[in-house]
Specification:
By secondary structure, this protein is α/β, with parallel strands linked by helices. It contains 24 helices and 16 strands. α14 links the parallel β10 and β11. α3 packs parallel to α4. The protein folds into 3 domains: about 200 residues, Hypothetical protein VC1899 like domain (Restriction endonuclease-like) (Rossmann fold), CATH 3.40.50; about 30 residues, no CATH class; about 375 residues, Metal-dependent hydrolases (TIM Barrel).
């Protein structure tokens, strides 16, 4: 079903020449002509010809475009032309589109040729007629009537000038006429229309932006594989240079907050620990008479950037006002989850893995399974607004003493059961070996407990290298097959053997800048750095290298996370901004690299990962999105 699209000026016979040439070689089902609104263009010949041929046709005149006097005149024609082709060509296959650069102003033919490149065509061509009629002033002229065109065709006096086919641009082919509407009013004759572009987004500007972006991609082609997101290759050199510059602390907060972010290390119980969130959770209690009455722990001086570090035990005690007793109340637990979801969504987090210990919130009336079901259902209901997807990681906690293995086994069993039960929506995707780290609680001691986790396909992340040495990381990597490491601050403690193993296995490291800073401990295997904490007024004896940037340079899949939003008093945006103080000179591009690592390290399937990639890419390049 071949159709011809053609421009015309004051010499309509050229349309007949193009149609005649095509009919000599193949069937032609319809012809669509576009012209200016000039009264000098006579279309009677065209109407008579098409009607005699019993051929479908349309003649469209661009309203308010009679002459080419200013750049605005051409811009108006080009906008209508692009919308007209979008309207007429969809959903016609590319192989059935033929485009002729027949007549009109030179700019009209040029615009038509560029449009054919964008939309795609089986053939783009021009026609050349041999002068063979009349002899005014001793010169013959080209055919100007239907009869003369017919005779010229018969005498082989009309020729093709083929310019080749065009495959079209996928960004344009995805568009639909409804994206950029065109008003077509009936003209004075049957088959004739007057065209107006509707107010709103400009297709011409969309195309211009797309062309600029394609030039940028070509310019950055050699570095494409090194960019955290391929869509960044469509940025201008100036825009990419901005990304290569250091993060500008608080001045970049709006940019960081707007980014679609991923949080892989966020504890449920460490959220509503203080202030209005804690009060809102308490007010939602189903059984207020049973709520704990202990006072809310006070933050250390200078919090969340204390001049002195605190221990892990002191850090966790800051969450005592929430604690297990408060979240055993169903109403408090529900409100707690709802507020956490809202905080994540408002901070621009599109995917989060929330860690929880359902058995801690169980009572005689509510089993750990019922608690976990409630947590899952609450997040599932929140997710109906489609701002953030939440999955769950169950915590298997090791302690310094006592029979904690039974408690650990309960959470592992819950995780295995939940993984079988919930396959879609909010679901359990992994287990976290957390809690007290020392030589007596290293990961290899729990190989048997985690066999079922691996057997049923659940992922495993391990808190390692935060308070124990590099041996704990070795054990997590080689004995428990951890896919991620919680904190992993001592990855570079001895030589690069362990680090290289982590890099080659693409094991991600979950850094939490605020929490890492708040509970850091001076250690001989952490290299002193003169400038790392200088801006924080930390005593020189306590200064140590925060490894985030060095990890990135060595190829470690570093991710940035929150840990405990309430205890640390910092959301994910805060943690991103804080890296500029912990790692002076860290660039915006390096932080985008951590976002890509988070995407790749998330415990999700391929299709979900692709969906998140598309969402992030859409944000990084909104110019290419359709209306």
């Amino acid at each position: 079903m071949a159709q011809l699209f053609i421009t015309v000026g004051t010499a309509p016979a050229v349309v007949l020449e193009a149609v005649g040439l095509m009919l000599q070689h193949q069937r032609l089902d319809a012809v669509h002509v576009i012209a200016s609104a000039s009264k000098r263009i006579e279309t009677t010949m065209l109407h008579q010809f098409f009607q005699a041929q019993k051929m479908d046709y349309s003649i469209t005149r661009v309203a308010d475009f009679s002459d080419l006097g200013t750049p605005n005149d051409h811009e108006r024609f080009e906008e209508v032309l692009l919308r007209w082709l979008l309207h007429r060509m969809h959903p016609l296959p590319r192989t059935e589109r033929w485009v002729c650069l027949a007549g009109g102003f030179k700019t009209m033919s040029a615009a038509m040729q560029q449009a054919a490149e964008l939309f795609g065509a089986q053939e783009v061509f021009h026609v050349l007629a041999t002068p063979m009629f009349g002899a005014e002033a001793g010169r013959k002229r080209e055919p100007s009537t239907a009869e003369e065109v017919e005779e010229a065709l018969r005498r082989h006096g009309v020729h093709w000038i083929c310019l080749g086919g065009q495959t079209g641009w996928p960004q344009v082919q995805r568009l639909r006429s409804a994206d950029y509407p065109l008003v077509l009013e009936k003209g004075d004759a049957v088959g004739e229309f007057k065209a107006y572009p509707t107010p709103g987004s400009s297709l011409r500007e969309y195309v211009a932006a797309m062309r600029r972006r394609s030039i940028h991609v070509s310019h950055h082609f050699e570095r494409l594989a090194r960019l955290p997101f391929p869509i960044l290759a469509s940025w201008s050199p100036q825009e990419l240079q901005w990304l290569e510059e250091p993060l500008d602390g608080e001045n970049d907060r709006t940019w960081v907050r707007s980014l679609p972010k991923i949080d892989l290390h966020c504890h449920l119980g460490g959220f509503a620990t203080h202030g209005t969130d804690l009060e809102a959770v308490r007010q939602a209690a189903c059984f207020p008479e049973k709520l704990p009455t202990q006072p809310v722990p006070e933050f250390p001086p200078g919090w969340p950037v204390p001049p002195e570090p605190i221990t892990l035990a002191e850090y966790t005690r800051l969450g005592d006002a929430t604690g297990t007793r408060l979240l055993r109340d169903p109403g408090c637990l529900q409100r707690h989850c709802q507020l956490l979801y809202e905080t994540l969504a408002e901070d621009g987090i599109v995917y989060a893995e929330v860690r929880c210990s359902p058995a801690n919130y169980a009572t005689d009336e509510r089993s750990p399974w019922e608690v976990l079901t409630d947590i899952r259902n609450i997040f599932q209901a929140c997710m109906q607004d489609d701002r953030c997807h939440v999955n769950l990681i169950l915590i298997a906690t090791r302690r310094q003493s006592g029979n904690f293995r039974t408690h650990m086994a309960r959470h592992i069993s819950l995780a295995v059961t939940a993984a079988e039960r919930w396959q879609e929506g909010c679901r359990v995707v992994g287990v976290d070996l957390a809690g007290y780290e020392d030589r007596e609680t290293r990961p290899h001691l729990f190989r048997e407990e985690f066999t079922a986790v691996h057997r049923c396909g659940l992922a495993l992340t391990v808190h390692a290298g935060e308070n124990d040495d590099a041996e704990a990381i070795w054990r997590a990597v080689f004995d428990l097959n951890a896919r991620r490491l919680g904190h992993g601050l001592r990855l570079m403690s001895d030589d690069d053997t362990l680090l290289n193993s982590v890099v080659s296995r693409r094991i991600a490291v979950e850094l939490c800048p605020y929490a890492n800073y708040q509970i850091r401990h001076p250690a001989p295997n952490l290299v002193p750095q003169q400038e790392c904490f200088a801006c924080l007024d930390v005593p020189a004896t306590d200064r140590m290298t925060y490894p985030l940037r060095e990890y990135l340079r060595k190829g470690v899949a570093v991710t940035i996370n929150t840990d405990n939003i309430g205890i640390s008093q910092a959301n994910l945006t805060d943690n991103w901004i804080f890296t500029a103080r912990l790692c002076p000179g860290i660039t915006r591009m390096e932080l985008l690299a951590t976002l890509r690592h988070s995407l790749e390290a998330a415990f999700i399937g391929h299709n979900e990962r692709q969906g998140l990639l598309e969402k992030i890419s859409h944000h990084l390049n909104p110019q290419w999105s359709t209306p």
